[in-house]
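User:
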Amino acid sequence: MDMLTKYRHKHENEGFLATKNGQVMAATIAALQQRKAHTAFRWVKGHSGHPRNEGADQLASLGAAKPSPDEFPIDIPPPFRVSGASLMFMTQKLAYHAVHSHRGAKLAQRPSTTANVERVVEDIKAACNHSITDATVWTSLRKKDVVRECRQFLWKTLHDAYMVGRHWLRPSMPDPLRERATCKVCNEVESLDHILLNCRARGRAEITALLRELWTHTGNEWPGATWGTLIGAACLIFETADRERLPALERLWTILATEAVYLVWKLRCERVIQNDGREFAAAEITNRWFSTINRRLTVDRLATAKFLGKRALKPNVVESTWYPILDRSNGLPLNWVGEGGVLVGIRRGQG
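Assistant: Predicted structure:
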């Protein structure tokens, strides 16, 4: 409602360039402007038994369940068409967004990218019985719980942008470089799927086991370490038996899974590139894992500082996220989140 009233002029001045569902909103506003009678809106509280509101919810549910969207005309007559953004309201960010959208519309998605995203969608459906869209997979990478290094890794993974496996087998590659396509431990052509889910080299299985062991402390069912639950970790939905969302659990899985899959990748690169194939010791892998997760815990605690203002995390969010997997053997003070002098760490083992 605010889009059609309170913020209408703002979006018209910006040419709907950065507006979500901009074409639909522009067509809706144009349809309202063509009406000869006065149009008034009245806010109705949702889920309060109002017949029209309940009917709209039912129609929305039916629409979401359709395998493909309905074709709906959104053509706008020339007199009511907004041709672009006003120069007075044009910013560098808005211009970049417009150029990026214009170029992106002309580019066809690579087959490997399409296949990778479809795997995420299918695995998420199998893990939590919720259907997500391709757009949800991409927007999930921008969640603030996914740190920049993990975000870049996940983005490149979905695009199959890393120089591994078949990329070394291009006809133009000399023989010494073509040898890099093969995993020296498993003696098969590498792929990101192989590295993250199937490789027998030390690191992958150990990190997965440590992730699962840590997850048992939450008391919730293990969602599995699949392509979708790891690469699309920020899309996974956790619910109670009454279908109530568990945001703290979703946040914890996002952090643990993205850090785990990125650590597997880092260990592989260090083993192959820096260590000339030498495998890591089990103790070193375990220490790297707990060091990574403890670092994220520390960052979360520091992010609750008041001087950060609106950007600060709420202490109750941090507490509800991390409390199930904390080492509480020596007891925790009530203010452990914001008290810098309190030593807090992740629980080790099954105890």
